Amino acid sequence: DVKVTQSSRYLVKRTGEKVFLECVQDMDHENMFWYRQDPGLGLRLIYFSYDVKMKEKGDIPEGYSVSREKKERFSLILESASTNQTSMYLCASSLPGADTQYFGPGTRLTVL
Amino acid sequence: GENVEQHPSTLSVQEGDSAVIKCTYSDSASNYFPWYKQELGKGPQLIIDIRSNVGEKKDQRIAVTLNKTAKHFSLHITETQPEDSAVYFCAASNWGGANNLFFGTGTRLTVIP
Q1: What is the three-state SS of B60-108?
Q2: Contact A31 B96 (CB under 8 A)
Q3: Could you say which of A58, B4, B13, B61 is the most buried, measured as most Cβ atoms within 10 Å of its Cβ?
Q4: Per-residue pLDDT, A96
Q5: Cβ(A52)–Cβ(A70) under 8 Å?
């Protein structure tokens, strides 16, 4: 089974802090994705990566950056957390050219 | 870009009844339409998908239909059970293109025992 793990299930940070959300997949998938999930808005794509050191902006990249130094790991970075970044963050991975995305359990981030 | 709309946002059914969730999409180039189920405290999991070259697909109690002309697709769950209670998301993508999934806003299904 594909396993996508996220470093924290719950995280509480203060406004202005730098926040790192880590995602690791164990199936050698080239594609990795970061989404945020908000009530009434569904899942919105923040950034995605097709390969190591490659990244592409999604629909809502403002206020975020990403890092993909190793194939299995994709990090989401909030340079200076703000209260409007309080949300559920979901990581996903897939094979190249494949449509099925496999999701991690999510990290619920609260910014105070 | 693609815009996916999903209705209803909440749905309550009696155990054993059927549930139908509908989605529309805007980009005629979209050709892949998955449905994800998200249980409490978990990430979304793929439950069924359909490609634009077929009109219907069935897997036990779950079926998905696609109308390319009208740009809408639907999830049908028959003989609902309490364990079907979850949030369901539809999505659309142009498979073979960017592989990006565009998600609907979700439907919270409650099956009443």
Answers
A1: CCEEEEEECCCCEEEEEECCCCHHHCEEEEEEEECCCCCCCCEECCCEE
A2: no
A3: B4
A4: 78
A5: yes
Q: Which residue has the tokens 């959300």?
A: A21
**Average pLDDT for residues A5-30, to the nearest whole number?**
95
A40 pLDDT above the threshold of 90: no
CA A35 vs CA B5, B20, B83, B102: distances in Å: 18, 26, 26, 11
Distance, in angstroms, between A48 CA and closest chain B CA? Answer: 9
Mean pLDDT is lowest, of A25-29, A75-79, A105-109, for A25-29
> pLDDT, tens digit, for every residue of B30-69?
989 999 999 998 999 999 999 888 899 999 999 999 999 9
Cβ B43–A45 below 8 Å, yes or no? no
B45:A101 CB<8 A = no
Cβ within 8 Å of residue B112, ≥6 positions away: B12, B13, B14, B15
Residue A69 carries which side chain, given as an amino acid letter? E
**What is the distance, to the nearest Å, from the Cα of residue A27 to the centroid of all Cα atoms in its chain?**
17
CB B27 within 8 A of CB B94: yes
State residue B96's pLDDT score.
57
Q: At CB < 8 Å, which residues of chain A contact B?
A: 4, 31, 35, 40-45, 48, 58-59, 90, 92, 94, 96-106
